[in-house]
Amino acid sequence: MSITRHLARHGAERPHAPALTCEGESLTHGAVAALVQRIAARFQDAPEGGIALDLPNGAALAVLFLAAAHAGREGQVLDPSWPAGQRADILARIRPGLLVSCGVDGDVRLSPTQGLAGLAEAMGAGTTQMIEPPHPDLSFPDPSFPDLPFYVGFTSGSTGLPKGYRRAHRSWTESFDADTREFGIGPDDVLLAPGALTHSLFLYALARGLDAGAHVILTKSFRPRAVADLARRHQASVLCGVPTQLALLLDHLAAEGATLDQVRLVLCSGAKWPAGRKALLSRHLPKAGFAEFYGASELSFITVAKGDERVPEGSVGRAFDGVRLSIRDRAGRRLPVGRTGLVFVESPFLFLDYATGDSPDLMRHGPEISVGDMGRLDAAGFLTLAGRAKRMIVTSGKNLYPEEVERQLELHPAVAAAAVLGVPDGKRGERLVAFIQPQERAHEGGGQVTRADLVAWLRPRLALFKVPRLYARVARWPLTASGKTDFAAVARLWPHGCELIP
Question: What is the 3-class SS of 131-161, one letter each residue?
């Protein structure tokens, strides 16, 4: 099996049904199947190695990625925002057989303005009839190479070289089947995935939606108003996003006094969804079930927390379908219920290896893998994370995981985001500083916040040594390309790039 296993069937059975839409360009299931097949034939003749894709977000990138997978080649999805030196370093490490790019060094060069028509011409895949085939009776065979690599993705680390991680087809096809059991996504769904395909969440949503025969809506960039308009125009039933995007969309809907009544399911990943936003979500997406995932690039789905399940407060949910969890110490010994240790994962969704060198955070225990996250399981199997081992702060001789403090701060109605970092302190080892992004609007009674407000908020919720004494306001919150807080960039703001909160 491959991640393109059902494209031919959907193309033959529903040739004229919409399959892929991205800002003015659309393809039916018949057209996707034909285009992928013909470009895959070109990729099969390419020199040995992966197919590096250095392109802006859009339908052309989506089709090329699927075609590489269909050809049994490894799609290496580069980030166009990388500096030239970093890009050159990555290419030297992954050594693609073919580079498809908008730049002058591409083996295949695409114009970013020509879209799918330019793609067809550049790949020598046919005429406009190939984009919209006149005879939709398609019957190309499903390739079967479940253990071959099909994807190299890259983490969006803010310092150093991004880690390149490699996946085999089976890791995603098993995921497709598991999340069918969890969510029942099918051919009647319209799946809106308004994020960059360099982020595995949105690339997965593309492949998963087409595997199900759904209509997938992509965007070239994220703009809340445009996303709301797309959801209405196409009657989107499933919305995928990271918390930052979903929060911005909710802010837009709140400002307009609008709702998206047709959305039945919101899937959130990349960071913990702020508990204080749940009421706003229910108000503006009133018919939508909500599910958030805890996962990692190397591990894929780990846990899921569904809105209609009794998830303990602060938990990231139960094991995803097909996943087994254990908590172990650094010697590999399994820890009992309630004890905090390293989270180890065993599942069919795990990655193959790294394409750009090993990671010091990765640990193995037999078939189980840990990426250095710390947490505990309760008797019912719900996981609560303490934080990343590498983010642990030692203050006053005690170990502190800043994620716990950040989650409590983000429950405050005047706080949109928080980052807790340690700065050197001669007496305490490290001194806590809480960086705050204030809410743009006073949701749920929020407003201007003071240091005394924040200390008073935290003291009943945390042990005293976990309550920061210093608070700083950040005007423009640093984010990684995947929409997560860029902690390294936040740290660089101290002490002159932020405003102390009195």
Answer: HCCCCCCCCCCCCCCCCCEEEEEECCCCCCC
- Asked if 191 contacts 147 with a C-beta cutoff of 8 angstroms, the reply is no
List the one residue out of 153, 197, 151, 260 whose CA is nearest residue 57: 197
Q: C-alpha dihedral over 8, 13, 17, 18, to 10 degrees? A: -20
| Domain count along the chain | 3
238-255: per-residue pLDDT in tens? 999 998 899 889 999 999
Half-sphere exposure of 125 (CA within 13 A, CB side): 33
* Residue 116 falls inside a structural domain: yes
Q: How many residues does the chain have?
A: 502
Q: What angle do CA 328, 333, 338 make, to 5 degrees?
A: 45
Instruction: Examine the domain organization and report whether 346 and 414 are in the same domain.
Output: no
Cα separation of 9 and 7, whole Å?
Answer: 6
**Strand positions, DSSP E, 443-501:** 470-473, 499-500
Pairing state of beta strands 108-109 and 98-101?
Answer: parallel
> Which of 390, 420, 443 finishes a domain?
390
Segment 114-162, tens digit of pLDDT: 788 788 777 765 434 444 544 444 455 566 788 999 999 998 644 467 8
Question: Please, are residues 500 and 469 in contact by the beta-carbon 8 Å criterion?
Answer: no
The predicted-structure confidence for 303-330, as pLDDT tens digits, reads as follows: 999 999 999 988 999 999 999 999 999 9
Instruction: Please give the model's pTM, rounded to 2 decimal places.
Output: 0.85
